[in-house]
Amino acid sequence: MRPEVFVIIHVVFGMFGILAALWMFVETLNSTETNQKRIEIASVVLVSCMWLSYVLGGYYYVNYYAASKAVILAGPFPSAHKFFMEVKEHLFFMVLLLATYAPFAVYGGRLYRNKGARNLVLSVAALVVILGLIMDGSGAMIIMGEKLGLLRR
């Protein structure tokens, strides 16, 4: 499989994870006994997508990113790696921990009855969405850095 496929699938699963967190947030805002199951499903989709994104992105990073890194660092926008990749590397662990925690916070919580648990789930989901979008933007900057580096050659 071409290396670019891993990057594309990595991004797709990351975006699906962000959408699942948004879904979980909206369902939790309107939490009732009837949508508790949908909140639980959204939390499982969230954690599954984020872990798949992590594994695929990690595979690409370990096996193929060295060539991209060299192009970025030699190009006109080395901050694409020096800053934005560092942001992604550090934020992703926070997102992964939050996504992994989400099902534990949701299952059996009866969020429609427990305001504290509901607020916790809302906070987790909002953080995943915000941090995920920051990471997506950072990934776009990394790709731009590589494109600029390749154009310079």
Question: Structural class, from helix and strand content?
Answer: mainly alpha
Gyration radius (Cα, Å) is 18 Å
Largest sheet: none
Distance between the termini: 26 Å
Shape: elongated
Strand proportion, as a percent range, falls in under 5%
Query: How many separate helices?
Result: 5
Proportion of helical residues: over 70%
Along the chain, the helix and strand elements come as HHHHH
Uncertain segments of ≥5 residues (pLDDT<50)?
none
Number of strands: 0
Task: Tell me about this structure.
The protein has 153 residues and is mostly helical. It has five helices and no strands. The longest helix is centred in the C-terminal third of the chain and has 38 residues, at 115-152.
Protein traits:
elongated, 153 residues, mainly alpha, 5 helices
Topology:
Blueprint: H1 3-29, H2 36-63, H3 65-74, H4 79-106, H5 115-152
Report a brief summary of the structure.
The protein is mostly helical. It has helices at residues 3-29, 36-63, 65-74, 79-106, 115-152. It is built from five helices and no strands.
